[in-house]
From TrEMBL:
<dbReference type="InterPro" id="IPR004045">
    <property type="entry name" value="Glutathione_S-Trfase_N"/>
</dbReference>
<keyword id="KW-0808">Transferase</keyword>
<comment type="similarity">
    <text>Belongs to the GST superfamily.</text>
</comment>
<dbReference type="InterPro" id="IPR040079">
    <property type="entry name" value="Glutathione_S-Trfase"/>
</dbReference>
<dbReference type="Pfam" id="PF13410">
    <property type="entry name" value="GST_C_2"/>
</dbReference>
<protein>
    <submittedName>
        <fullName>Glutathione S-transferase</fullName>
    </submittedName>
</protein>
<feature type="domain" description="GST N-terminal">
    <location>
        <begin position="1"/>
        <end position="81"/>
    </location>
</feature>
<feature type="domain" description="GST C-terminal">
    <location>
        <begin position="83"/>
        <end position="203"/>
    </location>
</feature>
<dbReference type="InterPro" id="IPR036282">
    <property type="entry name" value="Glutathione-S-Trfase_C_sf"/>
</dbReference>
<dbReference type="Pfam" id="PF13409">
    <property type="entry name" value="GST_N_2"/>
</dbReference>
<dbReference type="GO" id="GO:0016740">
    <property type="term" value="F:transferase activity"/>
</dbReference>
<dbReference type="InterPro" id="IPR036249">
    <property type="entry name" value="Thioredoxin-like_sf"/>
</dbReference>
<dbReference type="InterPro" id="IPR010987">
    <property type="entry name" value="Glutathione-S-Trfase_C-like"/>
</dbReference>
Length: 203
């Protein structure tokens, strides 16, 4: 049995759990994270020295970094192409989500959704503009494919992008009008586990 250490409110934990759900891989969620069980203790740091969730335990194997865990789970499945170029096209969007898109949403999300006082009003407004710019880039890609981020069929890239789009829609900002993104989320809503990990009621 595979065990995921984390909490459902974490976007990165939801990536892993949704990937497992799409692949019918049974996992157990062991509660860890701020407000649940402090990961900055020797027991947890021995698994992930960064002190962050999620962590995957699979027998004697321990992995951290959510996108890496998703790739590991998806290996050999329809969610991750077997050919080098197909896999690279999926992974470039996963890397984009983890670097470009995440960096864009941080000031606005942390301030307007989580109540952080770390960022100034100017930083939040700049963050909103940057976030919408990145989302417009995604909209253009989806308009080109007409379906999913990396092509005609869902991939693990759509799991990590999908939870990020949910975060964008759930944050109280002025959202850019992005019809391809809107249609994309309607397609994703047909996938198993969407309501739990990416739906309107998701934290």
């Amino acid at each position: 049995m595979k065990t995921v250490l984390g909490k459902l409110v974490s976007i990165n934990v939801r990536k892993v759990l949704w990937t497992a759900r799409l692949l019918d891989i049974p996992v157990t969620l062991e509660p860890w994270g701020a407000g649940v069980r402090d990961p900055n203790v020797p027991e947890f740091l021995a698994l992930n020295p960064n002190g962050q969730v999620p962590v995957l335990r699979d027998g004697d194997t321990v992995l951290w970094e959510s996108n890496t865990i998703c790739r590991y789970l998806a290996h050999g499945s329809a969610l991750l192409p077997p050919d080098a170029l197909g896999r690279a096209r999926v992974e470039q969007w996963m890397d984009w989500q983890a670097t470009e898109l995440n960096n864009a949403w941080r000031p606005a999300f942390m301030t307007l959704h989580r109540g952080s006082t770390k960022f100034s009003a100017d930083e939040v407004q700049a963050g909103v503009r940057d976030w919408n710019t990145k989302m417009a880039l995604l909209d253009a890609q989806l308009a080109r494919t007409g379906a999913y981020v990396a092509g005609d069929v869902p991939s693990v890239a759509d799991v990590v992008i999908g939870v990020s789009v949910h975060r964008w829609r759930a944050t109280p900002i002025d959202h850019a009008d992005l019809p391809a993104v809107r249609a994309y989320m309607e397609r994703l809503s047909l996938l198993p586990g969407y309501e739990v990990y990416c739906g309107d009621a998701t934290p």
